[in-house]
Predict the 3D structure of the following.
Amino acid sequence: MPDPAEPVLRFEDVSVAFDDVVALSHISFQAYEGESRVILGAAGSGKTILLKTALGLIRPASGRVYIFGKDITTMRERELAGTRSRIGMLFQESALFDSLTIEENVAYPLQNHKAIRCPREELHARVQEALNFVELGSTLEKFPADLSGGMRRRAAIARAVVTNPPLILYDSPTAGLDPITAYTIMALLIKERDVARTTTLVVTYRYQDGNLMANFRYNSDKGGLEPARNGSRPHLPTTFMVLQEGRMIFEGDQDLLEASRDPYISKFVKPRDSHEETH
Amino acid sequence: MLDLLKGFVQTVQDFFLLAGRAIGNVFRGPHYWDDVALQMDAIGVGSLPIVVLTGFFSGAVMALQMSRALAQYGQVGQTGKIVAISLVRELGPDLTALMVAGRNSSGMASELGSMKVTEQIDAMRALGTDPIQKLVTPRLLATAIMLPLLTIVADFVGIFAGWVISIAFLTLTSRQYWSSSWRALDWSDVAQGLIKPFVFAFVVALIGCFYGLRTTGGTQGVGRSTTQAMMFASVIIFILTYFITQIFVYTTQI
C-alpha cells in the first residue's frame, strides 16, 4: 500500500515545450489523497497540457512527474498503462468513440486496461452502474452522436469513473454547457468525489465551478448537494491553482485566492456571494 | 532550405517509426481481430464495385487500343496476350491500388484525423490501448490481405472485358482469345502481379494512418491530411511500381 503521506500526484519543476513554444514553465505542486484541486486559467494557459502531462500523454521537456509515488517521466508507454488504469480522465470534448455505443464506450477501459481485466459477466453490471451514477441508465444502445452535449459529457464521466480510479482529472467539465447543465455536471463531480473519496483535479475557466467544489458536498441521504464550508471537510481541503501562460501564478485556498489583488486572478474570481444565489 | 530538408527527413523518420511499430505489432498481442474483420469488409468488400468497374473498362480499352495497333502487323489474334500481360503485370495492380488509395488512404486519414483532433486518440491511450495496435495494425493487415485479392478480381474482370470486346468488335473467337491470353502468362507475371499489390497495401494503409495520426489544427487539418494521404499514396505507388518492374525485368528472362 502507498504511504498515506505520499502525494498521489507530484509535479517537480515540470516544463513542457512544443518545438520552441513553452507550454508549461517550471510547475511544481503536490496533490494528496482525497484533496480537490481546482486549476483556473484562460484558454491557452496550459491547463489541458498540465492534465495530459499528469497522465503521461505528453512528456515534459524537463522536471519529473510522480503518480502514486512512481516517476512516470521515463516510463515506456506499456508501463504507463498500469498507472493510467488507476487514473480517470474526462477530456474536454468528451472524446467518446464515435463508432462505439455508449455501453461499449463505458466498457472500454474495463475491457482494455490490462491491470483491470474485468470478467465478461461483470461487465454489463458495472457499465450499468456507472451510467446510473450519471443518470444515463437508459442510453446504453445509443451512439455518442445521438446524445446532447451535456449527456455526452455525462457519459464520458461514466467512462472515467467506471474503473473506480483513486485519482480523477477533469478537463473543463463545464465548457460550452448552459448554466443548468454545468451545475448538473459539477454536482456529479462532487458526488463522485464524496462518494468514492477520489483525489480530484478540475481544470476550468469558470470560478463558479471551483466555488462549488470548495463549498459544497454531496449528501447521499438527500441525493443532492448541500453547502459545506471547508470546516466540514477539514482533512480534505480544496486548493486553487491559477495558470497564466504556462506559469503557475497562484496556489492556495479560496480565502487567499479571493484576497489576491493580482489583476489576472481578479478577472476570474468574483465575490463569493454573487453566484451562490444562482442555484 | 536546411529547415525544409530537416522537416522532410523528420517526416520520413516518423513514417518509418510508425511503420516499424505497426508491423511489429502484427507479431505482438493484443490483437484486435474484430477490427481487422471490420476493416477487411470496409476495404475489400467496400472497394469491390469500383475495382470491378475500373478493371472492366481498362480491360476493354486495352483490347480496343491494342487491337488497332496489332492490326498494322496483322496480329489482331494476339490481342488476348497483350491484354492479359498488361493487366496482370501492371494495370491491374496499379489501378486497383490507386482506387483503394483514393478510397481508403483518404478515408483512414480523415477518420484517424478526426479522432486525433477530438482527443479520441489521447482517450484511447488513457484508457489502456495503444492507438497503433488498435487502429493502424488492423488497417494494415486488412489492406495487405484484401488488396491482392481485389487485384485478382480486377485482372480477371479486365481480361473478361477484353474477351467481350474481342468477340463483339474484333471478329476473334473465344478460343483464340482465351488461349492466347492463357499462354501469355508466366509464373513470374503472376508473382509480379501479386507482389505489387502486397507492397502497395503497406503504402495505402500506412500513409493513410500516418497522415491521420499527425493531424493538427481542427477540421481544416483533417481536410489537409486527407488530401496529402491520397496524393502521397498515389505518387508512391507509381514510383514503387517502376522499381518493382525494374527488378523483375532484371531477374526474369523474356
Chain A has a mean pLDDT of 85.
